[in-house]
Amino acid sequence: MPKITFIDVNGNSRECEVPSGISVMEGAIQNGIEGILAICGGSCACSTCHSYIDEAWMAVVGKPDEIEDSTLELALDRRPNSRLTCQIEVTDALDGLVVHVAQNDG
Length: 106
Ligand code: FES
Description:
Layout: E1 3-7, E2 13-17, H1 24-30, E3 50-53, H2 58-61, H3 66-72, E4 82-84, E5 97-101
Parallel strand pairs: 1-5
Antiparallel strand pairs: 1-2, 3-4, 3-5
The chain binds FE2/S2 (inorganic) cluster.
Residues 25, 38-40, 42, 44-49, 71, 84, 86 line the site of FE2/S2 (inorganic) cluster.
């Protein structure tokens, strides 16, 4: 099962096993990662699953599509490596992924 490391806004780091086929956001929720609110439930409408993809993983994870890009405009402190984690599907290729949770509670 792919392992994903989540680093929250306080710098706490947790490595979690997340099954392939669900989203990175769902993996965070299942593991109780602080700061991933996911208010819209994963429909790319709220931006409260905003995170920064570790630079080393940007090429693998890829860029947001047009819809995600416009929802990301709602996020605080958007950066070049910003993604909405509900829009990233976990696959074996993401084993070892490092995700830095953004400030999502205002
Ligand atoms: S959970 Fe709302 S945009 Fe990702």
